[in-house]
Specification:
alpha+beta; eight-stranded mixed beta sheet; binds zinc ion; about 230 residues
């Protein structure tokens, strides 16, 4: 069920650009919920891939994110996990900072909003731990809807070594129906699982479908590297 970082990266690239290759399973990802017209040729793909040099630098908050991840799984040996979250702000001297750090439960967390004068709201961070030790799980539908409805510029999730980020674009809607988005994402996720994708890959592919529909950019990286843009609407 687990998959490695390379698999996730490949899935991200394939799912984002709908590229078909010799692997039927990968083709299935590309064809999943995508229209034929969205598919790109191999040549176009390589030019897209070269453009995937856009990075998201979260180094200001990387250590704190890592600490909150560690806290999330500190009782994993007893089969207990807890999500931790925080609000991301931009300080006056243009550094990212985590504020309003909050402990949630095994399934969710609500970061507290506490922005000082002169600081700018950027978005939220939270962790995705699982009782069975699963990692590499990207956003839920409720997470994505929350990021859109709360006007987050950047929304970040850490699940083990993997860090995922949604970045708002000019085309991102102002508001969405959380239940509807959650349902869409869960349907897509189950579809990808039925196609034989690992849980992580299936959720990532479903995330990218949502990013396409709601015009969000998607970044992905592994600790301690920078995040790379793997999808841009
Ligand atoms: Zn979440």
């Amino acid at each position: 069920m687990r998959c490695c970082a390379r698999d996730l990266a490949a899935t991200a690239a394939h799912a984002a650009h709908g590229l078909a290759d010799g692997d039927a399973r990968r083709q299935a990802v590309g064809q999943g919920t995508r229209r034929r017209g969205d598919r790109v040729t191999r040549r176009e793909f390589s030019s897209v891939f070269r453009q995937v040099s856009r990075e998201l630098d979260l180094s200001d908050i990387a250590l704190e994110m890592e600490q909150l991840w560690a806290r999330s799984i500190r009782h994993l040996d007893k089969g207990q996990v807890v999500e931790w979250g925080a609000t991301i702000v931009l300080t006056k001297d243009k550094h990212l900072r985590l504020v309003g750090i909050a402990e949630g439960n095994a399934e969710s967390v609500t970061p507290e909003l506490e922005i000082d004068e002169g600081e700018e709201f950027i978005g939220t961070f939270h962790t995705h731990p699982y009782e069975d030790g699963t990692t590499g799980m990207a956003f839920s539908g409720i997470d994505i809807a929350g990021a859109i409805n709360n006007s987050e510029k950047i929304s970040v999730v850490q699940s083990g070594r993997d860090i995922f980020a949604l970045v708002r674009t000019e085309g991102t809607p102002v508001g969405v129906d959380p239940q509807r988005l959650d349902q869409e994402l869960n349907t897509a996720y189950r579809g990808y699982v039925e196609m034989g994708l690992a849980d992580q890959e299936a959720l990532l592919a479903a995330n990218l479908d949502a990013c396409e529909k709601y015009r969000l950019a998607f970044y992905w990286g592994t600790v301690p590297q920078r995040l790379l843009e793997v999808y841009k609407p």
